[in-house]
Amino acid sequence: MVEVEDLESQQVDRMETLTKTPISYKSAEEPRYKLIAENIVATYNGIEAVKNVSMKFRERAVTALIGPSGCGKTTFLRCLNRMHELSKGAKVVGKVLLDGQDLYSSREDAIIHRRKIGMVFQKPNPFPTMSIYDNVAAGLKLNGVRDKKIIDQIVQGCLEMVYLWDEVKHDLKKPGMSLSGGQQQRLCIARALAIQPEVLLMDEPASALDPIATQKIEEMINELKKEYTIIIVTHNMQQAVRISDYTGFMYLGDLVEFGETKQIFENPRNEITAKYVQGQFG
Length: 282
Hints:
Elements: H1 4-20, E1 33-44, E2 47-58, E3 62-66, H2 73-79, E4 90-98, E5 101-102, H3 110-116, E6 117-120, H4 132-142, H5 148-161, H6 165-168, H7 181-194, E7 199-203, H8 211-224, E8 229-233, H9 237-243, E9 246-251, E10 254-260, H10 261-266, H11 271-277
Helix pairs in contact: 1-5, 4-5, 4-7, 5-7, 7-8
C-alpha cells in the first residue's frame, strides 16, 4: 500500500515538474520501452478477440492503434491495464511488462497497476454527483491524500495541463456534468492525470466531439507526451497521422503491422494495411 505522505510528496514534485519546468525528452541513447505486451490472447467466453499480439511502446511517445470496428483494438487496450478481466467471461493470457514488471504476475496488485496505467474512455464520464473540483480530486482522496493545499495545487495543475483551468477556474463548484462534451472529456483526462499514471490509455477520446474540441484534445496529447507514454485507439486515420509517433494496424484480432506512423501510412509493407490506410475498406 502506498504511504499517504509519499504519495503526496510524489504528486507535488511531479506537478511542479509538469507545470513549471521545460521538459527535454530527446536523448542520444536508444529509445526506452515503457510498456511491453507479449503474446496477448484475450477471450470472451472462449472466443478469441485478440490473437497472440505482441507490441512495444516507447516511453514519452504516442502510439495509435487503428483498424476496422471489431478488430480487437479496444480489447487489447483494456488488457494493458487489466480491465479486460473485469468483464464476465473474459480471460487474458500473456504478459504486460511495465518497466520490466509483469502486471499479470500473481504477485502483482491489479489495483495498484491500474493507478499506474490510466484510462480515458470514448464517452466522457464525469462523476455525475460531483463538482468539477471533486471530479479531479476524487482519486487523490481515494488514495488517502487529505492535505487541502496539496489537493488544490494538483487539481489546478491537472486542469492546466488539459487546457481547462482558464475556462472553469471560477466555476469549480459547478457539476462536472454541466460542462460541454469536449470540456467533460478534458475533465476526465485531468481526473486520470491527478493520480500520477505513468502510461495513459485513450479509447477514441475525440470520436464524439466537434472539430474544435477535437483539436484541443489533440494539442493536449502532443503536450502530454513530453511526460507520459500514451496509447490511443482511433478510427480517424488523419488523427493518427497528426498525433502519433508509432502506429499498430489490427485486423480480425491480429496485429498485421507495426511501425513509425509515417511508414505505416506512406509505405505500408502489408497489402491489407495499404488497403485500409487508403480507405478501401473499414
